[in-house]
């Protein structure tokens, strides 16, 4: 393993953990009191996505599961694409 490989490993793990914690925060598992219902309200009122609860769960699952898969290096580009797709929410 050379320095580039090590740097990419550290970057992948760090980004994956941060993104998955954001998904867990929307579930209310980490941090101060997030919830799927609160996320759904934000999706409907601010972004205009209806039904908000569906899009909230899409965002939560993409961030939580996608972040974990990115961190452990499974799934190739698909978890990274899911994380990138929800990066504005």
Kindly summarize this structure in a few lines.
This protein is mainly alpha-helical and 89 residues long. The chain contains 4 helices and no strands.
Describe what this molecule looks like in 3D:
With 89 residues, the protein is mainly alpha-helical. It has one domain (12-85). It contains 4 helices and no strands. The protein has helices at 3-27, 36-47, 52-72, 77-85. The longest helix has 25 residues, at 3-27. The protein is elongated, with a radius of gyration of 14 Å. The relative contact order is 0.16. The mean pLDDT is 90.
For the terminal residues, how far apart are their CA atoms? 35 Å
Shape: elongated
Average pLDDT, to the nearest integer? 90
Helix count?
4
What's the number of extended β-strand segments? 0
Radius of gyration: 14 Å
Kindly state the percentage of residues in helix. Answer: over 70%
Number of structural domains: 1
Q: Which structural category fits the helices and strands?
A: mainly alpha
Strand content: under 5%
Query: Could you describe the largest sheet, including whether it forms a barrel?
Result: none
Order of helices and strands: HHHH
Low-confidence stretches: none
